[in-house]
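In the current project phase, the collection of sequences with tokenised folds has grown. A representative record is quoted in full directly below:
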Amino acid sequence: MFTRALSSIALIFCLSLPLLAEADQAKIKFDYSNGDEKKAGVWVDGGYVGSVDEVNSGKLKLAPGRHEINVKQAWYDDYLAEITLQPGETHNIKLRMEKHPVQKPRHPAMIRIVAFPVDSAVFIDEQFTGQVNEFNIEGNWLLVAPGKHKIRIALPGYQPFETTVDLLPKQKLKVSTNLISVGSPDNGPVAAQQADKQRTTD
């Protein structure tokens, strides 16, 4: 009888562990001042976790303790902060990013990004430039200097896509891909991630 009671207590304790862990997790929330900051990319401890808007949705949960926060947006200086989270805390961060002067490239080439998921981050030459859904609209394509550029599209939980392009002045390029979920049974990233590069000129 006593042994059965101990077993029941142990079972209840084990079942309660995930609930305790859930309660201990912390969150961060950004107070931003403009739309560019809302769409900025967020890195926690060196890993990309999504946009400011996505983090504010409450989906991101962090372990208590110290974390390094890095927020990036094209044409803005990076925002860096170190925070210490308490169990169950929602930590508010006042985000104020400084815009720096941008020199438009001469005779720029234009890149259109068509990819899924649409909230994937886009990097040009290792620099964060925004999310896919920002560059799939006529008149709002990426403007880059002519020449070679490395394009990287990435999202947590998916295999990143990378390609290198060599663009002519005023050339238009469409890059399309579907990111593959980590653990997908498909035949690897090379076979599944087929980049459709369509080049057009004015």
Notes: The radius of gyration is 22 Å.
